[in-house]
Amino acid sequence: MCLFQCIMNYFPEEVLEHVFDFLTSHRDRNAVSLVCKSWYNVERCSRKKVFIGNCYAVNPELVIARFPRFQSLTLKGKPHFADFNLVPHDWGGYVQPWIEALAKNGISLEELRLKRMVVSDESLELLSKSFPNFKSLTLVSCEGFSTDGLAAIASNCRYLRELDLQENEVDDRKGHWLSCFPDSCTSLVSLNFACLKGEVNAAALERLIARCRNLKSLRLNHAVPLETLQKILVQAPQLNDLGTGSFVNDPYSESYFKLKAVLQKCTSVKSLSGFLDVNPRCLPSIYPICTNLTSLNLSYAPGIQSNDLIKLIVRCKKLERLWILDTIGDKGLEVVAATCKELQELRVFPSDLHGVGNAAVTEEGLVAISAGCPKLNSILYFCQQMTNAALITVAKNCPNFIRFRLCTLNPVIPDAVTNQPLDDGFGAIVQSCKGLKRLSVSGLLTDQVFLYIGMYAEQLEMLSIAFAGDSDKGMLYVLNGCKKLKKLEIRDSPFGNMALLSDVGKYETMRSLWMSSCEVTYGACKTLAEKMPRLNVEVINENEEMEGRPKDKHRVEKMYLYRTLVGARKDAPPFVWTL
Amino acid sequence: MVDCKLDFEETELRLGLPGEKSININANYGKRGYSETVDLKLNLSSKKEIGLDKSHDLNENNLDKVKICSNDSVKPPAKAQVVGWPPVRSFRKNIMAVQKSGSNSEEIAVGGSAGAAFVKVSVDGAPYLRKVDLKMYKTYNELSDALGKMFSSFTMSKCDSQGILDFMNESKLMDLLNGSDYVPTYEDKDGDWMLVGDVPWEMFVESCKRLRIMKGTEAIGLG
């Protein structure tokens, strides 16, 4: 026994556990469990929050066996590209077996966070009835449920604190789910139903808000009219985070005057979103809130023109997070750069999704932001055009990027000035931003950009590639170079079998690999699956006319592979072949 | 400037449905094994087809690709897109589609009707215009009722407002045309001013860009 072990054995387990309590990140806890058996055991019995990045990498029984006392579960299902309609419906990602297993094994679940999973009303009902201490439900980009499921949650979860629905596809049965919160429910801290399409009973909503004195976060859907918002705000001036519903009213009406008055009292609102329906002439009513805002999301409001956006932003000097549409224009971004010196995260979404034409933002806006906002570390930028020179300047100005996602509306557009590929620009980004963890590239790109990425992006964990590269070399540079790569997703790029099979062991160090419309063949996928039993290699077949399996030399349209402890999944639909 | 010998049409980047008169599209789809009903894609595979030999020096390769892409200034047809590009969640796309159609009455969403079809309505003699969402109604009568309510607040003589309420009533149409009462007209996609009521309702909603309720005396020549 080494000295270290002697010393560590001197500490009773309770002390170790107490020390581990300070470790909240699952990565830290994972690291700690590797130290020795005794630490592994103490850690696993005390872990409260479990994070599972791919629901098919393990099964519920294994999780429960290792962490018998967890109370919070985060699960992610479908691959990221499912967000963009590249994964067929019914691919999988069902939460039902998880909820059943947790219920059966007496886990006292308090929090459930799901992303890109299929959640049925049955699941929600089982959830609401199986865990008496259940407190928090967060669903992001999920589908498969209706407002009936929400009614079950509202009715049965007596201590519910948080119901957070973000961008889900919900079948709105126009029932009265919100009215199902019993009068005894006073525990809500956070309620977000912005993604629902149907109406809720305004009176029930007002009463609910009035009795939940701890409510800090409220995001309404567009069916909630301005008058109701005004009444709610009178009851809940303590809100930190507000998502408006419809923001349409006659600016000369009495209800608008009342709204302006109550908004002046909402001094704790730090985060503002919504405006799913907006009359720009009503915007001045939120000016008083602007001074305190740290987070502003106007990305669902194409109706607000650049001028009105600028008038708002110029008052938001404390902004740390801004999500807007490209209607803001380069000029508007210059105002952001001049005003928002605390800005850390910027997302500029496209307002014109069908390419018919109004110029959006260009490289100029991005350069302005990089020059004006020294704390910027995360960006998602949809733009009309880009240049290497701009990217090089951005890289110099902002060496602190953790997330850099650039999306040119034309996926293969070259440098707007020189007509060259954008390799050097992205090369500058990865070279300068030593802490870069997530990167999405677009525009005209050759293998060269991947050489740069492999060489410099040492901390990179997630890389998204579309319509880029010339040959297998590109993918090889990435696989060989990026030691910390966890997720690689590639579409419409000429990477093939040689790249796929060159280092099969690499995939066990990663969470997943997605390749669609590339050059890999069925035979190569089979070979990979044979060599690596701890990977699931799934081929998604969308050719309905095909009978039997493709020949080895046929290209595979969509392949998704991921490491797993539990072999091929049993819930795969007929069009998904696990090789 | 290098004189590129590649044929312009060969290298042109185009979007199009399979079967359209586009270079190589059928060949590409054949090679890629697409079924006919599958998604439209940017014809980028053409960049591989045009013999981009790796032994060419880098500049020439770039120029080939650049030639392909510089035609990007030719905007693709509004309805053809690459699946999943730009990478925006469906939820966000749906919200934008519904809201955008509020500002113009053209169809926007791919493969189906957008959420609303707002058109301007002007009535001769009224102080300002209004907007209606044609998708809210299923028949001419419903539209007529709605417009009647909308404009009934104007100070008009009794027979005038009655005239508006009746204007879609077919049996009264001829009376209206001959009298000084109101006649409903609309501007269609081609820019022509047409009499309301001739075509089936759905066709009307598709093609109507704006409505004008004219005084009957001005409408002579339309009927």
Automatic annotation (TrEMBL), chain A:
<dbReference type="InterPro" id="IPR001810">
    <property type="entry name" value="F-box_dom"/>
</dbReference>
<dbReference type="GO" id="GO:0010011">
    <property type="term" value="F:auxin binding"/>
</dbReference>
<dbReference type="InterPro" id="IPR041101">
    <property type="entry name" value="Transp_inhibit"/>
</dbReference>
<keyword id="KW-0927">Auxin signaling pathway</keyword>
<dbReference type="GO" id="GO:0010152">
    <property type="term" value="P:pollen maturation"/>
</dbReference>
<feature type="domain" description="F-box">
    <location>
        <begin position="11"/>
        <end position="50"/>
    </location>
</feature>
<protein>
    <recommendedName>
        <fullName>F-box domain-containing protein</fullName>
    </recommendedName>
</protein>
<keyword id="KW-0833">Ubl conjugation pathway</keyword>
<dbReference type="InterPro" id="IPR001611">
    <property type="entry name" value="Leu-rich_rpt"/>
</dbReference>
<dbReference type="Pfam" id="PF18791">
    <property type="entry name" value="Transp_inhibit"/>
</dbReference>
<keyword id="KW-0539">Nucleus</keyword>
<dbReference type="Pfam" id="PF18511">
    <property type="entry name" value="F-box_5"/>
</dbReference>
<dbReference type="GO" id="GO:0005634">
    <property type="term" value="C:nucleus"/>
</dbReference>
<dbReference type="GO" id="GO:0009734">
    <property type="term" value="P:auxin-activated signaling pathway"/>
</dbReference>
<dbReference type="InterPro" id="IPR041567">
    <property type="entry name" value="COI1_F-box"/>
</dbReference>
<dbReference type="InterPro" id="IPR006553">
    <property type="entry name" value="Leu-rich_rpt_Cys-con_subtyp"/>
</dbReference>
<dbReference type="Pfam" id="PF13516">
    <property type="entry name" value="LRR_6"/>
</dbReference>
<keyword id="KW-0217">Developmental protein</keyword>
<comment type="pathway">
    <text>Protein modification; protein ubiquitination.</text>
</comment>
<dbReference type="InterPro" id="IPR032675">
    <property type="entry name" value="LRR_dom_sf"/>
</dbReference>
Automatic annotation (TrEMBL), chain B:
<comment type="similarity">
    <text>Belongs to the Aux/IAA family.</text>
</comment>
<dbReference type="InterPro" id="IPR053793">
    <property type="entry name" value="PB1-like"/>
</dbReference>
<dbReference type="GO" id="GO:0009734">
    <property type="term" value="P:auxin-activated signaling pathway"/>
</dbReference>
<comment type="subunit">
    <text>Homodimers and heterodimers.</text>
</comment>
<keyword id="KW-0805">Transcription regulation</keyword>
<keyword id="KW-0539">Nucleus</keyword>
<keyword id="KW-0804">Transcription</keyword>
<dbReference type="InterPro" id="IPR033389">
    <property type="entry name" value="AUX/IAA_dom"/>
</dbReference>
<dbReference type="Pfam" id="PF02309">
    <property type="entry name" value="AUX_IAA"/>
</dbReference>
<protein>
    <recommendedName>
        <fullName>Auxin-responsive protein</fullName>
    </recommendedName>
</protein>
<keyword id="KW-0678">Repressor</keyword>
<keyword id="KW-0927">Auxin signaling pathway</keyword>
<dbReference type="GO" id="GO:0005634">
    <property type="term" value="C:nucleus"/>
</dbReference>
<comment type="function">
    <text>Aux/IAA proteins are short-lived transcriptional factors that function as repressors of early auxin response genes at low auxin concentrations.</text>
</comment>
<feature type="domain" description="PB1">
    <location>
        <begin position="116"/>
        <end position="216"/>
    </location>
</feature>
<dbReference type="InterPro" id="IPR003311">
    <property type="entry name" value="AUX_IAA"/>
</dbReference>
